[in-house]
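Q: What would this chain look like folded?
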Amino acid sequence: MAGPYVVLRCMGHKSIKLRPGDTVRIGRHHSNDLVLNDGTVSRFHCTIEWDPDEERPWLVDNNSANGVEVDGEEVEGKFLLLGDNQIGVGDFTIVAQLKGAKPLSKRIERSAPATAQALIEDEGETVVRLFSESKRRIKGSFTDAQALERILLQLEDRARTGTLVVRVGGHKTQLVFGQGKLVTIKGYVPEGATGREALKQVLRFPGGSYEFTPDLEPSEEFLDLSVRDFLAEEGDQTMRFQRSPLDE
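A: My prediction, written as structure tokens:
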């Protein structure tokens, strides 16, 4: 059945079609879906993501050096694309045309901050939750290290906040995310590694199951680590950007 989609057009580049559930990454780095190789563009400049539960896609500025504009308006955090928008990324203009969409069923705020500081803590409980994070739990299985890598990248691209519980054999590892950044790694890690070395060990897990929840447990460790930047710094040549199990 035909449904809504967005066509992204940028002069000198192949058009990209975006549907609900899809994500398009834009930046200077070669791993992006739309590569804009120019000094005015950050390596991972911005992302257009369309949650299957939402009626329109969002443009997310990934803390780029030169920012992002939509129809001449500077984006602060996230911006809802309603159709026929002109997106300014460095010296480039990307035209986003919405096709086959019905009118919005409800009024929605077009902009939203990229970060949220408001936390709530239930009395007597150690679990906290961001006000902004209300999406459902997601769970499934992954078959190899590359599939787990794609799950972590999807969480970063979607600026998710919560805990990814990974089970391999009889072991459980918890990766805590805050607005897409890896905050801490707890539970089982091979060789008792911590920090960046712990992430390196986790990215070698051969296969298992995962569950992502919006719950957080306070921790003294605070990595504030971008998985994508970590992979780039480590010179990982296995980075692949097929659809993640999160999209299935």
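The chain is about 10% helix and 35% strand.
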